User: What shape does this take?
Amino acid sequence: MAEELVIQGSALGKQFGENVIAVEDANFTIPRGSFISLVGPSGCGKSTLLRLISGLIEKSGGDLLVRNAEVVGPRSDIGMMFQKAVLLDWRTSIENVLLPDEIRGTIDTDAKKRAWDHLQLVGLKDFEFSFPRQLSGGMQQRVALARLLQTGADIMLLDEPFGALDEFTRERLNDELLRIVEGPDITTIFVTHNIQEAIYLADQVFVMTPRPGRIAAQIEIDLPTPRNIDMTTTPEFNNYVQQVRDVLAGHLDGQPL
Amino acid sequence: MSDIGSDGVLAGVKELSPIQKLAMHGLVFLIIFGGWEVGARLGYVNELILPAPTSIAYRLYEMFFVTGSIYWHYIITMYEATMGFIIGVSIGMGLAITAAISPVFRRYWAPYAVVFNVTPGIAVTPFIIAWFGFGWSSKIALAALVCFFPPFINTLTGLLHIDKDATELFRSLGSTKKQFFWKCQIPSALPIIIAGLKLAMTGALIGTIVAQFFSASEGVGILMQRFAFRLNMDGSFAALIVMSLMGLSLFTLMEYMDYKVLYWRRHSRMEEVGSKRKRKWLAENGDFSA
Assistant: This one.
């Protein structure tokens, strides 16, 4: 079976104002069901690229196709998650998870049942009626993940979703995320500035470099799945880390910090 | 509402038992008012400058329980302040919502509200009396004028300063502007809007009383002035205390609203509201885990 490409970019560019080139000449294809990490230093355009795909911002040039259709705005098969959980403080977990249905006017018993199940899936049993301020940072991100699942989107764009959490919580949530998105259906793009995390999660790592923001390398990660934390100490894993570092070093040499 | 003593602010104050605390409060009260009373009675303090607390208390007793003369003034003043508050807040919030929705309005019309604000509202009293006459309407108008700005600026600020990620989240979910307004902007702005309402409440009372000072036939403001003109200082002070009581009751009302509406800012309230919603959900949908 030929790979189905869900996202294709060619010569994709985004410019802000007169002379800020956030993304330049991005060429990539993303097959259905894959997990892509976008890694790079601050200001390399990884968040911009994510927002282009999400339809939140408009491209300045090139082509960007999602399921063979030009991206013209937000679409219901694309869901997003941010570094902050972005929960509505006045709503309980379950009410936050039901927000997508409320907005689409699809709230019914079935939607409520799914919201309930999604909260169980992300490990928030017994916290269905807690308010965000009663939850820890990690639990808040779990609610945000449940809300993302509730949208029913099969393309998930995650912008450093666990970046504000402590190391231990982040590792656990990364593993749970992998468990949830594994399989042939869900396509995931994960933005991070953590090289290890990028490699650990992904089938393919896009290394981005700043000024102007470019995809400097696309590295296939040929590690066995499911991943587990012991792999991060193997020579293969460290080879990949070194590859990414080399790409970044090559571009960053001589650049002002 | 919060217990400052248990936080760092008053660190160093020795923790006392409830009875000891009560005794401390009683002692401080006694020192202040006892000293004042003795000073006045022994003639160290001129009764025309500062009447003894007991004379003021007696006046209050007389107003409320003997002649009952205060009630009408009290009701009128509260009515004028409340009406002024409602009108001022409606205009202020209405303009703020319009300005939040329409960038054109915000750019070309809202600056006048700011000019309006930097002009001391109280100074407009003579015009207000000239335009609205000596009756209730001029008091209501001044109250509305003085209290219009805080709800305006707070509502506008609250509606515009929405977290960028929340905006993106709603957009990515395909939300309409109307949905975003009701489900995100308004609730996010509520804490700062209510803070504006609290300021407006005090403003409305000030506006009413100043307008009454200027010209009125009824109200606590004019009552106080009449006492003062007759050098009836204990009566004047009694009227002042009545004003404080009004302020306090209006403030308590606002605090209660704060407590009820902004449940997600208090841990005890979140637990209360959370378990209420849980019961409601279980009654409507049953337990999906069962």
Observations:
- The radius of gyration of chain B is 25 Å.
